[in-house]
Amino acid sequence: MSTVDVVIVGSGPGGAWLARDLARAGARVRVLEKGVDRAPSGRILPMWWRRETLRVAPGVTLLRALRAGGTSTMFFLTAVEPPLELFRGHGLDLDQALAEVKGEVPTAVLADRLVGPFARRLAEVARARDESWMALPKMLYQERCTAEGCPPEARWSARSLLDEARALGAEVETGADVLRVLRDGTQANGVEYRRGGVLRRVAAGRVILAAGGIATPLILRRSGMRDVGEGFVCDPLSAVMGTVADLEGGDELPMAAGLVDAQAGYMLSDMTMPANFYRLFALQAGRPDRLLAHRHTLTVMVKVRDEPGGRIGDDGRPWRTFGELERGRMATGVVRARELLAEAGAKHVFEAPWTAAHPGATVRLGEAVGAELETQWRGLYVCDASVLPGAWGLPPTLTLLTLARHLARRLVG
């Protein structure tokens, strides 16, 4: 059995940031990532084959990432700030950590030259309606973008943090399926995992679970912590689409602007999606007549804040049902989206089936983890979307980076 100072399970935003900061401080760090060490291809079948799509409710598919960098390799670069007061109410003061993250990661609204025709049309219509339609900050190195688009190296992802961690001496093992946390009584002291068909163990003074809202509670359950995995949230969303004859696009940056209606429980934004996903959604919606309309399709995303419900099963499969509250929020948001599309000149409007993203709130702050993200077992921390304290409904990446920065400062200190 090998020994390190810190073992980190998962290489998404939280795990990658911690790996980099702790390696920079001189700790011997090993990162164990279940997925592959390559960026996503954007093709649907490989995602299904790698179980990056899961059915989580009747008719609802969840998208996740099983690869180095986690969901930061697949997200839409949106940098919504964490609700600082909410975390302060749980004993976490994140102001300094957020400022430090924003000093390092690009979080600016899109320059006008990078706003595509679809996003521009929706913004004009929304503001004419006196909607609170605001530009959304993006995690993007905009100076690397041109009028033809943004290359992959312009898009921030946690893979860059992993590269830095490796350069500082951290070990990163992919294809490592962590089974359980090792402990001596209430003291965590390592993990057991399977890689290449071989059962392995690594001892560590500190263990950090950053494997996501589905895998982290499963690992904890296998380790003997039973009161986790209940009441997860997963931000259901739908795309409302319509054809606009006088516009042509299809490859612009999505979520350039939108609105968050906290009282109604949903957010809206422009959402230009890749052609293969658009065609899949059109087929699922029973609209084969729209298959060739991708380059003239204007889309509004409706993303709902769902309330905690359902559970992560002992086999690692999440399942829940959405009640009248979530369905009502979605229906209200869809009506608003249809009104925007109608005023933008869209025809043949249809609604895609629900999908879901950002599974979390399964190892909640204030319940399963304390104010410093430590569990009931000493030396065992959680730093991913599992710790979100409840209903969310917003892109969580900047929040996860802020939590990781806060935890890294505490551990280094």
Description:
This protein has helices at about 15-25, 45-50, 85-90, 95-100, 115-130, 160-165, 210-220, 275-285, 325-345, 395-410; strands at about 1-10, 30-35, 55, 60-65, 110, 135, 135-140, 170-175, 175-185, 185-195, 200-210, 235-245, 255-260, 265-270, 295-305, 310, 320, 345-350, 355, 380. It is α+β, with helices and mostly antiparallel strands and about 425 residues long. Strands 3, 4, 6, 12, 13, 14, 15, 18 and 19 form a 9-stranded mixed β-sheet that branches. Strands 1, 2, 8, 9, 10, 11 and 20 form a 7-stranded mixed β-sheet that branches. A two-stranded antiparallel sheet has the order 5-7. Helix 1 runs parallel beside helix 10 (about 395-410) and helix 4 (about 95-100) packs across helix 10.
At a glance:
Helix content is 26%, strand content 25%. The chain is of the alpha+beta class. The strands form 4 sheets. Strands 3, 4, 6, 12, 13, 14, 15, 18 and 19 form a 9-stranded mixed β-sheet that branches.
Radius of gyration: 21 Å
Give the helix/strand class.
Answer: alpha+beta
Cα-to-Cα separation, first versus last residue: 28 Å
By DSSP (H or I, 4+ residues per run), the number of helices equals: 10
* SSE succession: EHEHEEHHEHEEHEEEEHEEEHEEEHEEEH
Number of strands: 20
Percentage of residues assigned to helices: 25-40%
What's the overall average pLDDT, rounded? 93
**Largest β sheet strand count, sense and barrel closure:** 9 strands, mixed
Fraction of residues in β-strands: 15-25%
Q: Low-confidence parts, pLDDT < 50 over ≥5 residues? A: none
